[in-house]
Specification:
Blueprint lengths: L5 E6 L5 E6 L1 H5 L18 H11 L8 E8 L5 E10 L8 E7 L5 H13 L5 E5 L5 E4 L1 H7 L3 H4 L12 H17 L3 E8 L9 E11 L5 E10 L1 H21 L4 H12 L6 E7 L1 E2 L4 E2 L8 E10 L14 E4 L4 H8 L3 E3 L10 E2 L15 E8 L2 E9 L8 H38 L10 E8 L8 E9 L5 E11 L1 H19 L4 H14 L10 H4 L3 E9 L4 E7 L5 E3 L5 E2 L19 E4 L5 E5 L1 H4 L6 H12 L6 H12 L8 E8 L7 E7 L4 H15 L6 H18 L4 E9 L2 E8 L19 H8 L2 E6 L4 E8 L6
Antiparallel strand pairs: 1-2, 1-5, 3-4, 4-5, 6-7, 6-10, 8-9, 9-10, 11-14, 11-19, 12-13, 14-15, 16-17, 16-18, 18-19, 20-29, 21-22, 22-23, 23-24, 24-27, 25-26, 25-28, 28-29, 30-31, 31-32, 32-34, 33-34
Helix pairs in contact: 7-8, 7-10, 8-10, 10-11, 11-12, 15-16, 17-18, 18-19
């Protein structure tokens, strides 16, 4: 019979103890004589626990045994915890039970189990930790001591969150998972986390922890077992793939070279190194590619990316943007020339201390024992620069980490090369656009102009927006703004072609709708096919355009548009309107007509022509943009340059996705003291009348310096109109403009005069030749009925 705290009792069918063996004093708190004859429930006074062995064990007639731990009280009132085992009896003692009672609160289970734990698990290759139900450490094996670098004595009796060597946010998260296992009994498997422990103070390592609850035979919670495995190799393999994806994604998010280089440096720290440096070769503008000096010349690279861990302690280093010069024997030059990774003990080591890493190396080779890795940034036949990864000497690189560095740099090199190519194309497009856009806009007493242009900053590249101011005959001015389909060099080149064509068409004094119709035909003729096999979007085929012609004599503006935003007119009183104007089809479609509209414009009004990049963005539709533009133009009394800057500040952010072009023109009409008109009969006698009227007009306006030129020009133009024109009447008009005069003679004929060189024996044919020699420029303007031949004459001091 046991005598170490165990009591065996015979209980009859009524629940009364009829037999007892063992030392009842330590267990039940009274001698055997006081136990016999008493009900079993006397020693289990708590009703809940008393019912458990009674109902479940067969004391009420059941035939199944039971075991468990119940709360009891000794006769003196002191509580105790008893382990209860019941067995039903048969035969003559049927309905009786044999009950064993064990005092379980005298000795902790881990004190009893410690020798077994030491014997079986201390030398296990995986880390094992035992905690009590309150998550305080009871025991760890020697493998776990090596993994975390903390002695068992320091760990004993402490919770994870009480260890200052570990990050508190990590320990709290792990304790939360452990507490869930204690409460639910559901184990947690493969709980991965990164830890920089005293065993590995300079680099995070990956560990996998599994937790399960420990229970005794009575299903009572004894504590928790935590099994820890070093899974750093597995984590490195996943991290390698993740880094490759991030290298491609982060460096490919931008087409800015500096941003892509900095993204590569950011990826390297802290997961690959304590410091990452990206140095790129300078680009030769003419070639558009990085320049690698010839042998013997110093290697000059610009620092484009830099990232250091805050606690790296690696000393100062040159910041981004500075030039770095390296000699012919420098490992950086050898790295680029040989296109091979080099390793060294530190960045300032002698060239002889650096070693080239063979491409045929194996991950099973000995450790590199290198704290610096220089990896060439290159694409086939195109060196770009060098990426340098630096670690503390205490934590040198391993071969698999070197492979990861090389793979990350290779992935990033493609995107850096794309950024360089994009930068070159953007620079070329901007230069081409600057050359093709007007360098100075025409200014006259009738027109004040100002322009604003902001190139696109998006990855699509520079677009093909353009604007122009074209002086026309009769003191008129043509204002043009357009937007070519597509972006890049092709769009800029197409913009130059279209602008040249429109200037030519406008100088032919065609109305706006005919200018657009002729340009549409020309663009259709440029479609890919016989001359080129370029796709339409690459060739820059198609555009939108708005043409407006202002006549200061009639104070009118005629306009037509081809799929372009409308013209805005800001009156002197601040009222802003957008004249009703058929949108028309975009240029390049063909087969559809364009329509002109004419409106009257008050003196001092501001005409605003713009591209859709000004009013439309991803966050703002065109109608909202027009309302914002109208609010700005309502303050049109300010100088045009200031008005343009106000419009840009209100509608354009710092990095527009599309080109923005804005052309502002403040117009002024010509008064009666600047325009003089005479009706003349179609008779040779009218030549004399015309000469006299013109000379008298010049003398009255103190323009006698032009008397000879105007008299001869009027005589020749009126003579040609009488001789070759048609209709009963002619009209002579003089327009005073700047320091000169415009002479116009109109008749009813639709034939254009032709300049020719008369022979010495010819009696006539020299009139237009003389006019062309005297005039600054001359030409013919056709109307619905008849034509007007005009010539601009400047005061001699202001002539060419």
């Amino acid at each position: 019979m046991p005598g170490d705290g165990t009591v065996i009792a015979l209980v009859d069918a009524e629940g009364v103890i009829v037999g007892c063996a063992g030392e009842t004093g330590p267990v039940l708190g009274c001698p055997v004589k006081d136990v016999l004859g008493r009900p079993m429930a006397r020693f289990l006074p708590e009703s809940q626990d008393a019912d458990r062995p009674t109902a479940a064990t067969g004391l009420t007639g059941g035939r199944q045994g039971w075991m468990g731990i119940v709360a009891g009280h000794r006769p003196d009132g002191r509580p105790c915890r008893l382990g209860v085992f019941t067995w039903p009896l048969s035969g003559d003692l049927e309905a009786a039970h044999l009950v064993a009672l064990v005092e379980v609160s005298q000795r902790s289970w881990w004190d009893a189990s410690l020798p077994a734990l030491q014997r079986f698990f201390n030398d296990a290759p995986i880390g094992i930790s035992i905690t009590d139900p309150h998550l305080r450490n009871v025991w760890i094996n020697s493998a776990l001591e090596r993994i975390i670098g903390i002695p068992a004595a320091h760990r004993a009796g402490k919770m994870l969150s009480e260890l200052s060597e570990f990050p508190r946010d990590l320990t709290l998260a792990v304790e939360s998972a452990m507490r869930g296992v204690i409460e639910t009994g559901k184990p947690v498997l493969d709980y991965e986390y990164l830890l920089r422990s005293p065993a590995h103070p300079y680099r995070d390592r990956a560990y996998s922890a599994s937790f399960f609850r420990l229970e005794d035979a009575f299903e009572q919670t004894l504590g928790l077992c935590m099994v820890i495995v070093d899974v750093n190799d597995r984590w490195r393999a996943r991290e390698h793939l993740a880094l490759l994806n991030e290298a491609g994604e982060h460096t490919g998010r931008t087409l800015d070279v500096a941003d892509a280089a900095q993204a590569l440096a950011d990826i390297g720290v802290p997961r690959l190194a304590d410091r990452a440096v990206v140095d790129l070769l300078d680009v030769v503008p003419e070639a558009g590619r990085p320049y690698l000096p010839r042998s013997g010349e110093p290697l000059v690279m610009r620092r484009a990316g830099l990232r250091s861990a805050s606690d790296a302690g690696l000393g100062p280093i040159a910041p981004t943007g500075e030039l770095q010069s390296h000699g012919p024997a420098s490992p950086y030059r050898r790295c680029l020339v040989d296109d091979v990774t080099y390793t060294g003990p530190d960045m300032g080591a002698d060239p002889g201390a650096w070693k080239a890493v063979s491409s045929a190396r194996s991950v099973h080779d000995d450790a590199l024992a290198a704290s610096v890795i220089t990896v060439p940034i290159s694409v086939p036949n195109r060196p770009l620069g060098v990426a340098t990864f630096v670690r503390r000497p205490e934590e040198p690189f391993e071969h698999d980490e070197l492979l990861t560095c090389e793979a990350v740099v290779r992935r990033a090199a493609v995107n850096i090369d794309n950024a360089l190519r994009f930068a070159h194309e953007r620079t070329t497009a901007l230069a081409l656009q600057r050359e093709l856009l007007p360098r100075g806009l025409t200014v006259s007493p009738t027109v004040e102009v100002a322009s604003c242009y902001v190139p696109a900053q998006s990855s699509n590249g520079v677009g093909g927006d353009w604007f122009d101011v074209i002086p026309l005959s009769g003191a008129r001015s043509a204002f043009v703004v357009g937007d070519v389909v597509g972006h890049g060099v092709h769009a800029a080149a197409s913009m130059g072609r279209y602008r040249t064509v429109i200037r030519t068409l406008a100088n032919m004094d065609l109305p706006p709708d005919e200018v657009l119709a002729h340009l549409d035909d020309l663009i259709i003729g440029m479609e890919p096919g016989s001359a080129t096999d370029e796709p339409q979007e690459l060739a820059g085929i198609g555009a939108t355009c708005l043409v407006a012609i202002y006549d200061p004599v009639g104070r009118s503006c005629s306009m037509a548009r081809a799929g372009h935003p409308p013209l805005a007119i800001a009156a002197p009183d601040g009222t802003v309107s957008f004249p009703e104007l058929p949108a028309g089809p975009p240029l390049g479609l063909g087969g559809l007509p364009f329509t002109s509209t004419e409106v009257q414009v008050e003196d001092g009004s501001v005409l605003a022509l713009f591209t859709d990049g000004l009013i439309e963005t991803r966050e703002r539709d065109a109608h909202a943009g027009l309302r914002q533009l109208a609010a700005v133009l309502s303050r049109q009394r300010q100088p045009l340059d200031a008005l343009g800057q106000s419009a840009l500040a209100a509608l354009v952010d710092g990095s527009p996705e599309d080109d923005v072009a804005l052309l502002l023109a403040r117009v002024h009409g010509l008064g009666p003291d600047s325009v003089f008109t005479w009706s003349l009969p179609s008779d040779p006698k009218a030549v004399t009348l015309a000469r006299s009227a013109a000379v008298d007009c010049l003398r009255e306006r103190q323009l006698g310096a032009l008397e000879f030129e105007v008299e001869l020009t009027v005589s020749e133009l009126v003579t040609n109109a009488i001789r070759y024109g048609s209709g009963p009447d002619l009209r002579l008009r003089l327009i005073r403009k700047d320091a000169g005069v415009i002479c116009e003679v109109s008749d009813g004929a639709n034939t254009s005069p032709r300049l020719r060189h008369a022979r010495t024996t010819d009696e006539g044919g020299r009139g237009l030749f003389l006019v062309a020699r005297l005039a600054h420029r001359w030409g013919t303007r056709f109307k619905q009925e008849g034509k007007t031949v005009w010539a601009e004459l400047n005061v001699p001091d202001a002539s060419r």
